[in-house]
Amino acid sequence: MPESRGNQIVPDLATRLGRLSDNGPTWTYHLKPNIKFEDGTTVTSKDVKYAIERTYAKDVLPNGPSYFKLLLKDPNYPGPYKDKTPDKMGLTSVDTPNSTTIVFHLQKPFADFDYVVAIPQTAPVPPAKDTGANYQLHPVSTGPYKFQSYQLDKQFTLVKNTFWNPATDPNRKQLASKFVFHLNVNADTIDNNLIHNFAQLDMAGTGVQAAARGQILTSPSLRNNADNALSGLLWFTYINTKVKPLDNVHCRRAIQYAADKVAYQTAYGGPVAGGDIASTVMPPSVIGYKKFDLYEATTKPHGDVAKAKQELAACGQPNGFSTGFAFRTDRPKEKAMATAEQQALSRAGIKVTLQGYPSGKYFHQLRRRAQLRAPA
pLDDT below 50 — which residues of the chain? Predict the structure, then answer.
C-alpha cells in the first residue's frame, strides 16, 4: 500500500502511512476511496487482505517473502485455498472493519512495518479473479497499465488501463501507449539491442556484459550515453546461522576473513560493472550510512587467510570444515561468484560444495538446507 521512493516511503493505495496503537503491535491503514481495478470494480480492504492471505499458501505459491507469516499473530493460517470460512477471509490477524480500512495485528511491535506493507505482496487481488499459480498470467491491475497478453517465460505486453485515475496516483505516469517485455533473453543480446536502440530498457538493470562494456569504454559516443551511478544495490552472501558449524560466530568470521572480495567483485564485472567493494551491509546511498570496515574488506580485499585460520581454531575446526553454497544456475555472474569463493575459502581449509538451482525453484528448494546462499 505504501511504496518506497528513493530513500523515503510514501503512501500509494493508502491515504497515509500506518497508525500504531496498543504500544506498537497494531497498525491501521486507510485506502483511498474509489480506486478501480482494470475491470471497473472498486478496490476494497478485503482485496488487500486476500492478497496477504495468498502469501501463506506456500503449497500453491512457494516463492516470495514470508514476512507476514513471520510477523502477524496467526502464523498457522493455511492460506485462502485451504481456508474453511465461507468468504475465504479467515486470517484473524488482519481486520477489515469497513471497505477502506485494514488493521494488522502483529505478534510484537515492529517499527518497520510500513516497509513490509510496501512490498508487492499487498497489491490487491480480487478473490473472484484469483486463479492460484496461474494468476501470474494476468494479475488484475489498479495502476496505469494492465496486461494485454502474456506468454509464460517468453513475453508480456502492457497497455494503458482505462480505469486508472491519475488524480489518485501522483506517484506514476501513463505516457507510453504500450510496453513489450521480452523474457529470458541472452544478456549479450540485451546489451546489443540497447546499443542499437532495438530495446529501450534492461529490466534487471545490473549492468552490461564484458563485450558491451568494452565497446562503451572505447567509444566516446557510447560512453557519453552510459551511466555508472551509485545505487542502493548490494551483492552479498547469506551465512545461515541455523546450521552447524555456522551457528558458531568464529566459524562465520573464518568465512569473512577467508573470502576474496576482489574475486567476488570480478565475478560481477569488476570495479566498473560490479561496483565498489562493500565493507558494510548498508550502502552509502541509504540515509544513516556510516563507514566502517570490521573484516578488512577494503584494506585486505583478497582476504586474510591467517586470521581465518585463527577463527577456525577458535570455533573448534582447526582443519577447516565442509559447507554448501547455493546459487542460481541461470545467473552466470552468480555462478562465477560462487565458484570464485569456493576457491578462496579452500585456502583456509573450508571445503565448499556448490549447489545450483534454477531461479524459479531457488528459495522453495533451499529452505534451510544451504549453509551459504547467493543474494536474493
Answer: 368
For the chain, helix, strand, coil in percent to 5 are 30, 20, 50
According to CATH, what is the number of the domain 2-133?
A: 3.40.190.10
Of 224, 203, 63, 51, which Cα lies nearest the Cα of 122? 51
Find the helix packing angle between 249-258 and 332-346, rounded to 10°.
Answer: 110
Query: How is residue 6 written as a grid cell?
Result: 528513493
pLDDT digit string (tens) for 269-312?
888 878 899 999 988 888 788 999 999 999 999 999 999 999 99
**Topology of domain 238-373, CATH:** Dipeptide-binding Protein; domain 3 (3.10.105)
d(CA 174, CA 164): 9
Q: Quote the pLDDT of residue 192.
A: 95
The per-residue pLDDT of the chain, averaged, comes to 91
Neighbours of 233 (CB within 10 A): 12
Q: How far apart are CA 55 and CA 44, in angstroms?
A: 18
| Among 132, 142, 120, residue whose Cα is nearest residue 40 | 142
